[in-house]
Amino acid sequence: MIAITKKPASVLAMTLLATTATAGLSAQELDAANDAVATTADADVLTTVVGSVPADLSGLTEGPDVEGIISARNDGKMMVTNASGNTTVSLSSGTEVRARKGLFGMNRQQLGQDALLNGLPVKIKTVQWNNGLVATRVTFSDDDLETANMIRGGTQQQFAQQGAAIGENKAGVSANAAATEALRGRFGDIDQYNVKGTTNVYFGSGRWNLSPQARNDLCAAAEQAGAMDNALLLVVGYTDSTGSYEVNQALSEKRAGRVVNYLQQQCSWKPYRMLTPTGMADSDPAADNSTAEGKAQNRRVAVNILVSKSVDGM
């Protein structure tokens, strides 16, 4: 899986206009079309496309392959983030969405576009259209889809808990129902978040204590998130493949819990801006577990900075 850097590069907003759609328009209609195009100076946004993406993508010029993590979805487009930055790709009714499963990923299951969840690592074949890219095929592993679904479920389950925490923090009394509605108002559908950055911290075999480097990185991540309006932190713990599932599950939870405690106690991150930590055992490995170097990369906790589209201008 390609990790998002702790300080992702700013993305220049691209303006895509369909010349065939604007031909023959009046001056007023052209002004209205121009006003509808999203522009930005410093924020990561998805490009607004004027015109319908064709269903038949055959005959279009082949575009570059795109690989990374889905960091945003909006109106038939998705942003894919990797170590090089962000790429916006449009989706068509002709786009194939397939999950790889089985030995070497040879078996493929065709799915709907609703399977393209934020946080899902994907590989995309593209064609060029209207000065942008359109996905002809999106593939991902069945295991990665399961992980993305678990994270999605975890964020949805936090509405009531986070709402209660906000209510108690601000009013000093229990106001669960009202606080939950307030949280929905602030963050909209929290499942529809943008991933603004990910920090990984690493652990020794069988251990969950934090190294000095990990402590510095965690407070740097909290500082980065604190500079963003309404950011939440989602903490996910992992292990390498050594040991049984039961042992690894407990260890991944201990690592995630230790990170959460440090963020709150030493980095001054407010509990009500933290989603409940998740332990994923040895699933979703970042590297090959057959080597010592790969196992070291897999003994990690990922701290994800999330901002809802409703407050991120998406």
Residue stretches low in confidence (pLDDT < 50, at least 5 long) are 1-50, 102-106, 154-190
Order of helices and strands: EHHEEEEEEEEHHEHEHEHEH
The domain tally reads 2
Q: Can you tell me the CATH class of the largest domain?
A: Mainly Beta
Structural class: alpha+beta
Strand content bin:
25-35%
Give the strand line-up of the largest sheet: 5-4-3-8-9-6-7
Major beta sheet, specifics?
7 strands, mixed
Number of strands: 13
Supply the CATH architecture of the largest domain.
Beta Barrel
Which fold does the CATH topology of the largest domain refer to? OB fold (Dihydrolipoamide Acetyltransferase, E2P)
* The CATH homologous superfamily of the largest domain: Nucleic acid-binding proteins
Overall residue-averaged pLDDT value:
74
Estimated helix fraction: 25-40%
Task: Determine the N-to-C terminus distance.
Answer: 25 Å
Cα-atom radius of gyration: 21 Å
Rough shape?
globular
Helical element count?
8
